[in-house]
Amino acid sequence: MTDIRVLLADDHPLMRESFRTLLDASPGFTPIGEAGNGAEAVQLARQHQPDVVLMDVRMPVMDGIEATRKICAAPETAAIRVLILTTFDLDEYVYSALQAGASGFLVKDTTATELLTGIRLVAAGEALLAPRVTRRLIDAFTSKSKPLSGTPRGLETITEREREVLALIAGGLSNTEIAEHLHLGVGTVKTHIGRLLHKLAARDRAQLVIAAYESGLVTAQGR
Length: 223
Known about the structure:
Blueprint: E1 4-9, H1 13-24, E2 29-35, H2 38-48, E3 52-56, H3 64-73, E4 81-86, H4 92-100, E5 104-107, H5 112-123, H6 131-143, H7 160-170, H8 175-182, H9 186-199, H10 205-215
Helix pairs in contact: 2-3, 3-4, 7-9, 7-10, 8-9
């Protein structure tokens, strides 16, 4: 099995060193570069084509949100997954990071095991949206009254069951929890999610969450 190639983007050398040491010591991972700011992260992403970028939010020259946007928007780097490092006092950045194309979030005090698991999930095409982060995101979205961008293309084509699944995804439920809630098999839930990804032209679960928020399908009161 090919190692997961990870680019580290953080303006603190000690933080990058700790991540690099962990990845070097963990089978299945290869750190392939380090960036001290967002502009460097974009440049190194183009150069090295990592599987995952572990991206800090607050960095000089270019912040992690803008760097994520540039990486995910450019055709030559669009397949790269971005995993954002955040803290709960930076909740205001979470929504922007999702819009920019981030595939998930980890808090900076996460354990080594959680970090490695998160990188694996994102590299495999999953979205890493912990329920506690998702719930806080819904609250922030509603409290700030962010303007809706209109009904996402394709939302009018989804079935009632797919709409239910989408709302539960946005509520932070896992596939297993959705299956239990709707009395479905996990395989059936995955099929519905696959159809939602196709109909809404979403790259991953994170973009499904954005679609649910921006359409008004999910609100803090209605979750």
